Amino acid sequence: MSVESSPRVFSYDSYRHMLTRLCDFGYEFHFFDDAEDLLESGIPFVLLRHDIDLALHYASALAEIEEQLGIRSTFFIQVRGDFYNPFCDVESQIIANLIATGHRIGLHFDCGLYPVDTSPEDVAGFCFRERQLLETWFDIDVQVASFHRPSKRVLSADDSITGGLPHTYLPIYTKNITYCSDSTGEWRFGHPLDLQATTERRPLQLLVHPIWWQGTSQSPEETLDMFLRQSRQRRETDLTHATDPRRDS
User: How far apart are CA 134 and CA 211, in angstroms?
Assistant: First the structure.
């Protein structure tokens, strides 16, 4: 039975509503390394995570909402993605702001960037290198990884595939904790407020991709079209700046 009639629009207002209602139901928001103790305590809790696939700058609006509600979450960052660079000036500052306001940074690791015949030991080595880049640049400890578009083999792997770094698909995060995701701009396993697990106040792992939450009622396809237009505009601005012979003092 549904907890309530919950909004389906992916907007900032509906995001705030969802988190507020979860708090009203008695849920606490925690980080992944808290899970073992919380499961023993019986406290209803949410592990809120953001996988940043396409656009880092969309994360700021959701982080601001969370900060207003006293919630902290984990933002998983790609080091080798095609769509953003966490080490460039603007995007590096976004991540620094997330850290400064109490959020945590995880590694969003894409095993698919490496040859399919790469040994598990080598995959673990690549993961370690990517983790080191984030830790060194932002002066943080990366304590958890998530996978980008993982294969079944990767999903079932233990933490040896990430060099001992816990990942979000380990049994501790998926067996006794209900997983819910907005992948592809749809609630693939049901809206979080409508889940039987929520009715029973059982723990949740909630995956949110900031790109889908644009404050409008547009479709996922329209959101991606908007992203492409905005990306082109930013590239044109960057190109103009990069080719201007005058340098700002």
Answer: 22
Give φ, ψ of 185 to 5 degrees. Answer: 80, 20
What are the extents of the domains in the chain? 12-24+48-174+211-243
**Scanning the structure block, which residue is given the tokens 């995007």?**
91
| Tens digits of residue pLDDT in 202-213 | 999 999 999 999
CB atoms within 10 A of CB 133: 16
Per residue in 150-198, pLDDT tens?
888 888 889 999 999 999 999 999 999 999 999 888 898 899 999 999 9
User: Yes or no: is domain 12-24+48-174+211-243 CATH 1.10.10?
Assistant: no
Q: Quickly list H helices, 32-160.
A: 35-41, 59-68, 89-100, 120-138, 152-155
DSSP, collapsed to helix, strand or coil, labels residue 77 as: strand
Using alpha carbons, select from 169, 204, 210, 187 the residue that is nearest to residue 51: 210
Whole-angstrom Cα distance, residue 99 to residue 89?
A: 15
Q: If you ran DSSP here, which 8-state letter would residue 113 be given?
A: G
For Cα atoms 211, 174, 44, give the angle at the middle one, nearest 5 degrees: 85
